[in-house]
Amino acid sequence: MSAEPLHAVIVGGGMTGLAAAFHLQRRLGDQGMAPRLALLESEPRLGGKIRTSTRDGFLIEHGPDSFVASKPGTYQLVRDLGLEDELVRNHTGQAFIARGDRLYPIPAGTMMGIPVRLGPLLRSPLLSPAGKLRVALDLFARGGDIDGDQPAGDFFRRRLGNQIVDRLIEPLLSGIYAGDVNRYSLQALFPRIHQRGRNQRSLIRAMGDLYDHAKPAPAGQSRGQFLTFRTGLQALTARLEQRLTACAILKGSPAKAIRRQGGHYRLELEDGRSLDAHAIVLAVPDAAAAELLPAARNTIPPLLPTLSTSVANVVMAFPQGITGPSLDGTGFVVPRGSGHAITACTWAHLKWPHVAPRGAALLRCYIGGAHDAQLVDASDAAIVDAVMADLRRITALRETPAFCQVTRWKHAMPQYAVGHLERLEQTRKAMAATFPGVFLAGASYGGVGLPDCIRQGEQAAHDLVDHLGQRNLLESREALHVD
């Protein structure tokens, strides 16, 4: 690299880091700068958990398979990248929940198991009459039970009772966040519910105000809530990499340490090289960020420790399709303590018809999480056997898959414990005082979904450019050269 410090180095080439690099390049360019940026990724590929492959006509997602359509930041990024015409919206259908070895429809009018409308829940066989009565009592609740942060499970149990939490809310939230609803921060998981709960007596009424879109759409107007790309989510990360023309991308280059070097930072790499930069975005898990900042062990003890858990997904391909119960749906979730290894299953070929040849079936099953993470360490064969046994019991599946692919994500799902947002604010303040110009972003901090990661990357870019501007570090127009 040239001797002059870079504007910034982004550590981590997952979705957050790529979004940060893209928005940094754009904002610096808009200000007439020749961006001097570098993106470091320890793995030989970019994209983090986003990974798409194809086999025998099947499109396989090894990590996330879509993003929420209603969050505008992601859609705007897609438009900026010229990928709007490649978007595909999911097919809608009934989702189910397993009780024992049977599947029951998840009642309409619920959001992540939390009632928005009471009628469909009262008609559901998932709850007993006593359980339904306990939920209905929320309409007469006095509220006022939110004072600071608290476990989400405790809050929902007080408002709606144990039965709906154990049979509906917990399995749905665990399927999304792979965590323990009884320990997860209400403030971090449901900030809008946390805020509304202070001012509104009934949770059901508050949910109705927040989620009007959960009401049934007029006939013929049902639309899926999720989007992906015809060639898979990796289309997004591949296009981002292609557009980072003013950013040096160093793959297979693990960072070792960050040290203050006069008025800037020196980032040391494992291979002995080093980079000098005015500012840094740490788009890596918080444990990795702490390792890169040895000085923080004394000045910021500890650097926001966020517990994480491990998960795995198992993709199973059936070229001739599958038989069993005729279900017009998208998949099912499984409550903990059910005796099943599976935590959730998606009939991917029904939710996303483009991922499988006509007449074929593609299933995505999930295991692990806060309640059974040790299964992730089992062999591929043991995991597949456990998943197949569950599918045969729950869905009466008779066919054998032509192939299976197991993908493990170790310590990949952060668990935001009570007080997470307060600790995060304290950490950011300490970082600003001790390491000005070093910005934290990613799933450890502000959300695990693609829209959350993209939003954090964009915010980090915004804050970083403001930091450079305040210190008159935007004067250089010399282009970056890579040796």
Which key features would you list for this structure?
21 strands, seven-stranded mixed beta sheet, globular, single chain, alpha+beta, 17 helices, 24% strand, disordered C terminus
Shape: globular
Q: Give the uncertain stretches in residue-range form.
A: 213-221, 477-483
Termini distance? 6 Å
Rg estimate, integer Å: 24 Å
Share in β-strands: 15-25%
The class by helix and strand makeup works out as alpha+beta
Plain-language structure description:
The chain has 483 residues and is of the alpha+beta class. The chain has helices at residues 15-30, 72-80, 119-122, 129-136, 152-160, 162-177, 186-189, 191-196, 203-210, 234-243, 286-292, 296-299, 348-351, 380-395, 420-434, 443-446, 450-470; strands at residues 6-11, 37-41, 52-55, 58-61, 67-68, 87-89, 94-99, 102-105, 110-111, 114-115, 226-229, 247-251, 255-261, 264-269, 274-282, 307-318, 329-333, 344-347, 361-368, 403-415, 438-440. A hairpin with a 2-residue loop joins strand 9 (110-111) and strand 10 (114-115). Helix 1 runs parallel beside helix 17 (450-470). The protein starts with 5 loop residues before the first strand and ends in a 13-residue tail after the last helix.
